[in-house]
Write a structure and sequence with these properties.
Elements: E1 3-10, H1 15-28, E2 32-38, E3 47-55, E4 68-73, H2 76-82, E5 86-95, H3 102-105, H4 115-122, E6 125-129, H5 131-138, H6 144-156, H7 163-170, H8 176-188
Parallel strand pairs: 1-4, 4-5, 5-6
Antiparallel strand pairs: 1-3, 2-3
Length: 189
Amino acid sequence: MVKSLLLVGVGGQGTILVSKILSQGLVKEGYDVKMSEIHGMSQRGGSVTTQIRFGEKVYSPSIDKGEADVIIAFEKLEAARYISQLRKSGTLIVNDEEIYPLPVLSGLAEYPDGVIESLKKSVDNIKVIEAKKIAEELGEVRSQNIVMLGCLVKALDLENIDWIELIKENLPERVHEVNIKAFGKGLSL
């Protein structure tokens, strides 16, 4: 059986790093993995998406509308933007963080109210994470992506993979300890 994951966020949140670590772990576990990433205007705070499909045999990374088993959103407006990709029985893991897009920053638009409430009305299986708050409590706000990775690993029931080793392989040694703690926090949610 093939699983389809959509990771969405804003440039600079570490969405692609999480996709890379996740894909490496799945390959080490023996899955056939296909990944596709779209950076958009990621360096300017634009949308970043990654599609990952894994299973015994996968032919394409593309996820059709309404076919994602899990969407993990590093920013809540990005969750709203891509919610149509989630299958009816799918899981949405969303970081309760607001990062204002350029139209909001320039005063041409307003960040919408009630994004999480709206998502809860349209998705049966939703997990809202305060990853930024958790990461700040650990002393490194940039580790919120690894908090989200822990949540995703738990949701996919993939705890048997050596994620700690993969975190160490993909991050500088000076941030290993805080990111291992961040992963543990995410796993416990």
